[in-house]
Design a protein that fits this description.
The structure holds two protein chains of two kinds. By secondary structure, chain A is mainly α. Chain A has helices spanning about 5-35, 55-65, 70-100, 105-115, 120-135, 140-165, 170-175, 180-210, 215-220, 225-235, 240-275. Chain A has two domains: about 5-55, no CATH class; about 60-275, MetI-like (MetI-like fold, Orthogonal Bundle). The longest helix of chain A is centred in the last third of the chain and has 36 residues, at about 240-275. The chains are: A mainly alpha, B mainly alpha.
Amino acid sequence: MIGKESTAGRAVKFVFLGGWLLFTVFPLYWIAVTSLKAPGDIFRFPLAYWPEHFSLENYSGLFGTADFGTYLANSLIVSLVAGATATAISMLSAYVLARFEFRTKSALLMAALVTQMIPSFIALGPLYLLMTDLRLVDNRFGLILVYIAVCIPFCTVMLRGFFENIPDALEEAAMIDGLSRFSALFRVLLPVMRPGIVAAFIFNFVNCWNELFLSVTLMNSDANKTVPTALNGFISSFNIDWGSMSAAAVLTILPTMLLFAFASRHIVQGLTSGAVKG
Amino acid sequence: MPVTSTTPSKTAAPAEGAASRKGGLPRGGRRKREFTTRRGLAIVAYMAPAALFVAVFTYYPMVAGGQMAFRNWKLSDLTDTSWVGLRNFADVFADPAWGTVLGNTAVWVVGSIVPQLVIGFALALWLRRRFVLRGLYQALIFFPWAISGFLIGILFRWMFNSEFGVVNDLLQKVGLIDEPIAWLADPDTAMVAVLVANVWYGVTFFAIMILAALQSIPDELYEAAALDGAGKARTLFRITIPYIRTTLALTVLLRVIWIFNFPDLIFGMTGGGPNDETHIVTTWMIKITQQGDYGRASALGLLVVAALLVFAVFFLMATREKKGARP
């Protein structure tokens, strides 16, 4: 216990906590309400805090006039494949960094940190030229390769934190029983680590789903655009169509919000154990 | 809690995995040494896929981008990519907008970090004690983290809309303003607006990190303080803050680096406007990249890296000094 709280103290606390909650939730509420208004009602005074006429017109427009279904599918494919592959690859590197002592270890960890410090824009030009040489510009497979590389450093650091929370004895026992290191990793450690692996995958998925600048640079045909690239197209036009924009925003936010809600406890654990320890 | 491993304490050693692992080391170490070659091969084989991806798609473009800073590298004329020494850097400093960009960057970093730290700290302190629905509360305030900075920029761009924005509507309802404000049309109010959006986004990270650190403080410390009759403020400044100082310092360091490198929100919200007056260094870099001057954009990028390295070194030195002074 941290000592008794006075009644006044409690009141201040709950006003603050309640206020912050309102402030956090309100923008999400507002974009959802906007998206559910009939397109004309968005620009009508007084502003309605609850739609007078519920309408899905903004949403149907996205799939009719705009090709939002394609963008969603592209984002889904790219984020799933890149997120899962990056998680698998990072498991191997995280395992080594958690379990072995070797000379280049701190250099490797430093190399992972440096990728987070350098503004990504410095790499965009050369990356575009490299992908042109590889004939992977405007290609979902190409974007997947790049996203895997983007996800690996932080995912490795995060998973390393999870590995370090599992005692060595577990796989040592398995190896004494005759399992190779690889099968010990997969048959013994993987089941124990499942929450951590799911959290790492969700973190990767959300990062790929939200990524804008690489996608804008590498994907130029309409058939290959991801959702953020499409949103960027919406705001680049002179007049923003806030009806379509709000519906698109809701469709973009909803999947990642559900995933985060599902895994928030493990993501928090991954962030605090991996990132703080560095 | 692994956080405790960065938090030195003389009291009760926190029970953590690291302690038991260290105890097991000599035996494991000896066994591992017997298979040096196999061990080396395993390390290489397990690291190879990650290293390959990061080397090809991250490091190669970064290094290639770095050397562009010293070349004439313009998309408009790819026939002449000759070395130009420091000309791109000179161009960066000679740009009349550079002063505004630097000033905005300082406002952006400090104006984001300070409120994020203070509010995040308060949230963490109050979330430490259990209350009904605390789990739900934590899940809800976690939501901003699922959204991209770019999209957050768009959400707040809509809320700060001069005609149909809900911010103006609410402020008029409570009587704080009489006339709608064209928030994003004036550089000063536009900076306020992007800062509000970034505080909304970033508080959660501080709250999570600080809460984890707070939970590593042994209850006995607080009990002892209460016995000695220490008041709330005294307990906060004599026990809580010193105990989690390392975590606080590291979190601030990580966030400064990250916010510095975070053009997404401003890009989505103001696009650097009006009249390029809300650009920070990294959105400025986007603009120059879009103009096709890769050389000058790379020079800017290298300046950012240099500034962050200098900052990181000074920051770490400043926080380590205090650590040495501890008994």
